[in-house]
Amino acid sequence: MFQSFRATLAGPLFVALVAPLLGLLPVAAHAQGYPTRPIRLVVPFAPGGSSEIVARAFVIEMSRGLGQQIVIENRPGGAGNVAMQDVARAEPDGYTLILGHVGTLAMNPWMFARLPYDPIADFAPISLLGKVATLYAVNASFPARDLREFIAAAQREPGRIYYGSAGNGSAGHLAFEYLKMVAKIDVVHVPYKGTGPQLTDLLAGQTQATSAGAGPLLPHIRSGKLRAIAVGAPQRVAVLSGVGTVAEQGFPGFETSQWYGLIAPARVPQAILGRLAAEAAKAATTPTLLEHFAADGTVAVGSTPAQFAEFIKLEMARWGEVVRRTGARAE
C-alpha cells in the first residue's frame, strides 16, 4: 500500500490535481499582509487640476487605513495615454496603481485612432472615487454673464473666441466640443499640457473660456477673476447655486461630468483589489474628505470593483456616441 501511495504522489494524476492549487499559493501569500511597503499612485495629468485634488484627498485617508504611505507621481502626456501605457506594463503586485479618469477610460478609446493600451483588458478596476461637476467659465472681463450670452457672443464673432483645455483629447476638450455641437457655435480650441497651464493663460486673458472640473476653477471664481456661466452636470453645484446647468439654459438632456477612480494593472490578485476597494469606500465616508469635496463641488463615491467595472462600460458607450456625433479627434 505504501509503495502504491508513493507511486500516486509521483504520478501524473497527482500533478494534475495539485498543481492548480499550488499555483494559487503565491497569490494568497502575496495578498497576505499587503501592503508591506509604500504604494505608488500615478496621476496621468499635470498638477493643478481636479485629478490631483481627488487623488490627494483619498491618499491621505487610505494611507491611514492601509498603514503604508501612498505616494503620488504626476506623469502627464498624451491625454493620459503615456502613464496608462506604463502602468499597464507594471508588475501586477498592487504597489503600482493609477488614477483612472473619464478621459483615459471612456473618451480616449474613441478619440485616438491608435490607443497604446486596452482600458478593459489591461486594467483591473478597484473603486470609483468621485464625480466632479464640469464647469463652463470665462475670464471676468469677457462680456457674458451666462451661457446664453456666451453663445450669442460666439454667434456674433465666429472663430474669434478661444477656449483652453488640459490638452488634446482631455475631458475639458471633449466637453467644450460637445457644447459647440449642441449650441452650433464656432469657438477655437487651444490645447495645453494640463489644467494648471491653461488656467494661467485664461486668467491673463490670452484665452477667453474653458470647461474643466469645478475644483481648480472655484478659487478663481470666488476671487472674481473668472465667471462660471454654466454647469455641465444634470444638477446645479451647491457652492455655485446661482449658476444654471447647460440643460436649464436651453439644452435639455445635456450632461458632462468628470469622474475619477482607482485602477491597477490587470492580474493584480483579487484579495489586494478587495483590500484597496474597502479602504477607498471607508475613505469616501470620512468627514474630512466629505467636507473638502463639498467645498470643491465634488461627490465622493467609493464603489466595489464590480460596480466600477460596470460603470466604465456604460461610460464608454455614452462617450463613444458623443465622439461620433461631435466628430472630435485628438490627433
Describe this structure in words.
By secondary structure, the chain is an alpha/beta fold. The protein folds into 2 domains: about 35-130 and about 255-325, D-Maltodextrin-Binding Protein, domain 2 (3-Layer(aba) Sandwich), CATH 3.40.190; about 135-240, D-Maltodextrin-Binding Protein, domain 2, CATH 3.40.190.10. Helix content is about 45%, strand content about 20%. Strands 1, 2, 3, 4, 5, 6, 7, 8, 9 and 10 form a 10-stranded mixed β-sheet that branches. Strand 5 (about 160-165), helix 7 and strand 6 (about 190) form a beta-alpha-beta unit. The longest helix has 22 residues, at about 305-325. The N and C termini lie far apart (about 70 Å). Residues about 1-30 have low confidence and may be disordered.
Q: What fraction, in percent, of the residue positions are helical?
A: 40-55%
Per the principal axes of the C-alpha atoms, what is the gross shape?
globular
Quaternary state reads single chain
CATH topology of the largest domain: D-Maltodextrin-Binding Protein, domain 2
The CA-CA distance between the termini, in Å, is 72 Å
Order of helices and strands: HHEHEHEHEHEHEHEHEEHHEH
Structural class: alpha/beta
Q: How many individual helices?
A: 12
Q: Stretches where pLDDT falls below 50 for ≥5 residues? A: 1-29
Sequence-ordered SSE layout with sheet pairings:
Elements: H1 2-10, H2 12-31, E1 39-43, H3 50-66, E2 70-74, H4 81-88, E3 96-101, H5 102-111, E4 123-139, H6 147-156, E5 162-165, H7 171-183, E6 188-191, H8 195-204, E7 209-213, H9 214-223, E8 226-231, E9 257-265, H10 270-283, H11 287-295, E10 298-300, H12 305-326
Parallel strand pairs: 1-2, 1-3, 5-6, 5-7
Antiparallel strand pairs: 3-9, 4-7, 4-8, 4-9, 4-10
